Amino acid sequence: MLSDWYFWIKAFHIMSVIAWMAGLFYLPRLYVYHVERSGSDEPARTLMIMEEKLLRVIMNPAMISTWLFGLLLAATPGVIALDAIWVWTKLMGILGMTWFHMWLAGQRRQLATESPRLTGRRYRMMNEVPTVLMVVIVLSAVIKF
What is the value of pTM for the model shown? Predict the structure, then answer.
């Protein structure tokens, strides 16, 4: 049955990944603005609302649907071979992306309750993590090394 729905599942998986990646790229940037304006009251409150809504309304559903449609694709007969290296490198990249998502969620909670522990520069550096993971994931899935 999954084979009949393969292209639909793949399309929804790709849309979910795009939404998730957009959030993973944007949320650290909001943290940069948050930290660099931490002395000002009103902008920080506005940024906190933006951060929370981005995570709750866009990123969490996108991550969940990415995983759901990805697992459905993996369960489709003939799509993956578990003895191929690319499957495992892609999985490691996805687990890294999921860890980064959870780290960002923890940072949002920390920024909402206490003064920032990381600098704007550190958040800018962390903003590169999803790019590196995306390269690993895409190369694994497309090149299938």
Answer: 0.91
